[in-house]
Amino acid sequence: MSAATTPAWEDPRILRGMTAQLRRRRELLAAGHKPLGWKLAFGAPAAMERLHINAPLVGFLMKDALLPSSASLSIAGWTKPAAEPEIAVHLGRDLGANASRTAAMAAISGLGPAIEIADVDHPSDDVEGTLARDIYQRHVIFGPNDVSRAGGLLSGLSARVTRNGTEVANTDHLQALTGELIDIIRHTANLLAAFHENLQAGQIIIAGSITLPLWVEPGGEIGFHLSPFDPISVRFSANTSR
């Protein structure tokens, strides 16, 4: 987001939606839930144009959303479940508002693969409502954190995504649908600071889906191989409990 662009938080939809979302997050923290980090969504150029936004939307992650790789997850009763392969950005330092690119890179202690599981249970063109619902977040799966990629080093990474063992995506253009990694980390820090929050060491940011959302059904399995990492995956069932 350039200096000439109107800050995202001045959009009344984002102001109201983030206020509601972060109120919910504070309530969860007060009830004993543990924070994990943050998520980005709708960063693709077409999505931003459709929603009339100039930067990705931001939501939160909690530790009780974590699933291990190869988990079987019940989606019984879900509205429109989706899986999204993403880059996980691990933070080793706090990052406040108006940070330089150098500072943002220095805050990144490593990268790894992630799969976010969402349930699209509300029209996405209602930006305020989508934010208030934490952008459909349900679960997240992480692979290992590669500290050799501190600073946000993406070179040499490629992504292969499978559905039920069949390849559905294969790309090394990992930022085409998310925006440039360092810029969106800075955007996240700026947006949170506008609401009296900040990025903290130990938090993890999932940077947005590197493919279009993968709609899933019971009996399906989504695999994500962010090479050279080991693959991660998740299975879906119609059981009433996971």
Topology:
Layout (H helix, E strand, L loop, with lengths): L11 H19 L4 E7 L3 H7 L5 E6 L3 E2 L3 E4 L6 E11 L9 H7 E12 L7 H6 L4 E6 L15 E6 L2 E6 L9 H14 L9 E6 L4 E2 L5 E7 L4 E6 L5
Parallel strand pairs: 1-10, 3-7, 4-13
Antiparallel strand pairs: 1-2, 5-6, 5-10, 5-11, 6-7, 8-9, 8-12, 12-13
Overview of this protein structure:
The protein is an alpha+beta fold. The chain has a domain at 8-63 and 85-155 and 170-211: Alpha-Beta Complex (Fumarylacetoacetate hydrolase, domain 2). The protein has 5 helices and 13 strands. The protein has helices spanning 12-30, 45-51, 101-107, 127-132, 181-194, and strands spanning 35-41, 57-62, 66-67, 71-74, 81-91, 108-119, 137-142, 158-163, 166-171, 204-209, 214-215, 221-227, 232-237. A hairpin with a 2-residue loop joins strand 8 (158-163) and strand 9 (166-171). The protein is globular, with a radius of gyration of 17 Å. The termini are far apart. The mean pLDDT is 95.
User: What is the H/E string?
Assistant: HEHEEEEHEHEEEHEEEE
Helix content bin? 10-25%
How many E-type strands? 13
Distance between the termini: 40 Å
Structural class: alpha+beta
Task: Give me some keywords for this one.
five-stranded mixed β-sheet, Fumarylacetoacetate hydrolase, domain 2, single chain, 5 helices, alpha+beta, 242 residues, globular, eight-stranded mixed β-sheet
